[in-house]
Amino acid sequence: MALVICALVAITGLAMAVAGHQDPLAAQGYVVLLFALAVGLVVINGYFAPAPDEERLRHYYDDPIKVGIILSMIWAVFGMFIGDWVAWLLAYPELTFDAAWASFGRLRPVHTTGVIFGFGGNALIATSYHVMQRTCRARMPGQLSAWFVLLGYNLFCLVAVSGYFIGITQSKEYAEPEWYADIWLVIVWVTYLVLYMRTLARRQEPHIYVANWYFLAFILVVAMLHIVNNLAVPVSLGSAKSYSAFSGVQDAMTQWWYGHNAVAFFLTAGFLGMMYYYLPKRAGRPIFSYRLSIISFWGITFFYMWAGSHHLHYTALPYWVQTLGMGFSIMLLVPSWASAGNALLTLNGAWHKVRDDATLRFMMVAAVFYGLSTFEGSFLAIRPVNALSHYTDWTIGHVHAGALGWVALITFGSIYALVPILWKRERMYSPVLVEVHFWLALAGSLIYVFAMWNSGIIQGLMWRTYNDSGTLAYSFVDSVVAMHPYYIARAFGGLLFLLGAIVGCYNIWKTIRQPSDEAVVLAGDHPADAVAEPAE
Amino acid sequence: MFGTHYRLERRSIRFVLAIVFVASIGGLFEIAPLFTIDETVEVDPDMRVYTPLEIAGRNIYIREGCYACHTQMIRTLRDEVERYGHYSLAVESQYDHPMLWGSKRTGPDIARLGGKYSDDWHVAHLDNPRDVVPESVMPAYRWLLRNELRTDDLGGQLLALRRVGVPYSDEMIANAPADARAQANADDPGAEDVAARYGEATNIRAFDGDAGRLTEMDALVAYLQILGRLSDAAGKQAAAGEVAQ
Amino acid sequence: MIDLSHDLLVGISKSFGLFYLIALSIGATVYACWPSNGKKFDRAAKSVLKDEDGPWQ
Nearest CA of chain C to the CA of A452: how many Å? Predict the structure, then answer.
C-alpha cells in the first residue's frame, strides 16, 4: 500500500515534469519524483522485515513522532539560518551571490515557510500524534496514514521552498506555494483530520482532553483558511503559475483573514494544545483551571476570525470592516491572557522546578511571551497606533516576539520534554546544554525584539515628522540609513537564536545516540513495522 | 441541559462541526459583504487593463518578491498623501489578481510610481540600486538585463486572467506575445495595434534602452511605469476637491 | 437592488453578529462553570499526569 502511494506520487511528479517541460513546473516535478523514489526505497527496504505481531498493539505508535521531531529540528536550523541571512542582507545588501535564487525577495519566503511550516508544522504534527494517543489512551488506528501525513506534509514544504528559489510564488504572504502544492496539502490535511478523528473515536477516556480541542481547531480551521485563500485559476496544467480568484479589496481581506488566522490557528491554537499538555505534565501539576481553558478555547476560536482586517487600517477597505477588526482584536486579549495566566498559575507551587529545570523554564517564558505579544497585538490593532506602527519594523518585532518567544520556546520546551520519553532515556544527554540553549534563545529573542521596537518606532516617526515650514522633514532614504544599527543588532539576536537551535540539535542527537537506560526500557517496545523509518 | 455539550464531544464529529461553525462565522460576515462592494465604491469606466508586457512585468515583480519590501497602498494619512500622492482607491486594484498592497515598507510605497522617474533611472536602479542611491539596501537585480523575456505563454496568462474576471478580448489574448514585443519597440509594425487595443495612454518604447532585445528588464520597467496610472479615478477625486484626512 | 443586497449583508453582519457573539460567550461560560461538570474537568485535568505505558486495552 505504501509502495502504491509512493508510485502514484512518483508518477504525478513525472507527469508534472513532462507537462511543464518549458516551465519551472518541470523542476518541481523532479523534486516530487525524487522524494517519492527516496521514500519508496526506504519502504522497500523495510518490506522484508518480519511481519508485525500483535504485541505492538499494546504500545503507542511513536515512530512517526520521532521522525517528526528530527525533521522539525532540521527545518528549524535551515529556516533560521535563511532568516538570519536575510537579516544580514538588510544591513549589508551585497552579502549574497549574483544569482536570482539568492536575492532577498526569494529567500524571505524560504525563511517564513521554513520556520512556520517546516519547523512549526512538523513539531505540531509530531506532538499532536503524541498528545492524542496519550490523552485518548489509545493507539493510532493505523500506521500508514500517520506516515502519509508526516511525509506528505514534508513533501509540501520541500516543493514550496524549492519553488521559491526558482521564483515560483503566489505572492500571498504565508500562502506562497502555487496551486499544485496547495492541492497536495489539502489531500494531506484531510488525511490528518481523518486520522485524528479516528484516534479520538477509539479513545478510552470519555472526555476529550482540552489539548485535543486546540489541535482539532488547528487542523480544521487551517484547512478552511487554506482552501479559501488559495482559490485560483492555473494558467494551464503545464504551468506553475496561477491567478487568484480574488482581486483588489476582496483579495486583501481574504488574504489577511487568512494571514491573521494562520497566526491564530497555526501559530497559536496548535501550540496552545502543546502547552496544555506538556506544561502540566512537566510541572507535575494539573492545569490551574480547566474551566478557564475551555472558556479561552471558545473565545479564541470565535474572536480571532474577525480580527484579520486590522492588517488593513486606513486602506481602501471599508471603514466599518476596519473598525470591526479593531474591536475584536481588543476583545481577543481576554481569552489570550486567560490562557497565558492559566499556564503561569499552573506553575504555582512548582516554581522551584522552574528554577532548576530549563525545559520547564522554556515553557514558562513562552507563556510570558505569549501574554506580552498578544497584548502588543491588541495594542497595535488600535487604529491610531496602527497608523504609526504599520508597514514598519515594529510589526516584524511583534511577529518575532510571538514566533521566537512564544512558538519556538514552547516548541523547544515540549521537544526537550518529549525526546527522553520517546527514546526511553531518563533525561536529555546534557541538561547543561538545555540551559545554554535557553539563555541563547532568550537573549536572542530579547535583542531581536528590542532592536525592532526601536527601529520600528523611529521609522514610523521619521515618516510623519514635519519641519517648521510644514513640509516632511525626512526623505525615505533617511529612514533607511537610520535603521542600519538596528538591523545589525537584529541579525545578531537572530544569530544567537540560531546557535541555540544548533546546540539543541546536538543535544537531541547525543540523547538519541547514548545507550538507552535499561531501567526505562519496556520489553518488546520496538515492534517490527511494515513501514520502516525513513533514514532522515 | 449541558449534557448537550457532553454528547457533542462524545461524538467528536459534532464537536468538529461546532468548531467549524463558530470559526467560519467571523470570516463569512467580514468577507461576504465585500463581494457586493463593487457597487458601492468608486467606479471607473475608463479603467485600462494591464498590457501583456505589463502583466509579464507584474509576474516578475511577484517572482522576485518585491512585495515583501514595497507596498502599493497609500493610506489616508496626511504624511503618506504628501509623500506618495493621493491615497489609494479600491477601484485602482480591481484587476489585481492577486493584490500587491504589501505589508512592509523596507522600501518606499510605489502605488503611484509610474512616470515619477525615467526608464534609464529604473534600469540603472534595478541593475544596481547603489549606483543611483548609495544608501539603498535593495538587492541588485542584475539578471533582469541578462534574461530574455519569455512571451510564448502570455496568451495563456491573459486567458487565465479573463477567467477570474479581467476583461481581456479574444483579440488581446490571440496577439499577446506579439503585443508584448511591439510595446517594447516603438518601431515595431504592431506598435499601433497595441495602442489601439490597450489605449492611447499606453507607454510604447524600449524600456531597457535596447529596442533590439526584449528582456525581463523591459517588462518590469513597463510595469513600474504604469503603477497608479491605469485609472484616473484618484485624479478626478482630487480635482473634485476631496481632501485627504 | 444591488445596493440593497450590500446593505442587507452589512446589516446582517452587524446585527446578527453581535447577538451571536453574546450568545456564544454566555453559552461557553455557562458550560465551563456548570457545577456538575466540575468533577469531569478535575478528572480530565489530572488525567494527563498519569501513566505513559501504553494504550488501555
Answer: 35
The set of chains that have 3 or more CB pairs under 8 A with B is A, C
User: How does the average pLDDT of chain A come out, rounded?
Assistant: 90
For residue A474, give the C-alpha cell: 525626512
Mean pLDDT on B63-90: 95
* ipTM (interface pTM): 0.91
Q: Is the residue at A531 inside a domain? A: no
User: Which of A4-13, A316-325, A445-454 has the largest mean confidence?
Assistant: A445-454
Write the CB contacts of A465 (distance below 8 Å, at least 6 apart in sequence). A472, A473, A474
Distances (CA, A) of B219 to A249, A338, A360, B181: 25, 52, 55, 10
Rounded to whole angstroms, how far apart are CA atoms A525 and A528?
A: 10
A164 occurs within a structural domain: yes
Residue A528 belongs to a domain: no
For residue A10, give its domain range: 1-46
pTM, full prediction: 0.91
What is the CATH number that goes with domain B52-243? Answer: 1.10.760.10
* Nine cell digits for residue A223: 484547512
Q: State how far residue C16 is from chain B, nearest Cα, in angstroms.
A: 10
Phi, psi at A67, each rounded to 5°: -65, -40
Please state the rounded mean pLDDT for residues B80-102: 93
Looking up residue A119, the CATH number of its domain turns out to be: 1.20.210.10
Amino acid found at B216 = E
Residue type, A145: S
**Residue scoring higher pLDDT (A488 or A23):** A488
Together in a domain, A308 and A449: yes
Number of compact structural domains in chain A: 2
- Percentage of chain A modeled with pLDDT above 70: 95
The shortest CB-CB distance from C31 to any of B2, B26, B33 is to B2
C7 assigned to some structural domain: no
Structural domain harbouring C27: 17-49
Q: Mind listing the pLDDT tens digit for each residue in A143-188?
A: 889 999 999 999 999 999 999 999 999 999 999 999 999 999 999 9
HEC profile of A88-120:
HHHHCCCCCCCCHHHCHHHHHHHHHHHHHHHHH
Q: Which of B9, B10, B12, B143 to mutate to test the interface with A (most CBs of A within 10 A)?
A: B12
Q: Give the count of domains, chain C.
A: 1
Asked, for residue A529, whether it belongs to a domain, the answer is: no
- Average pLDDT value for residue range A9-38: 82
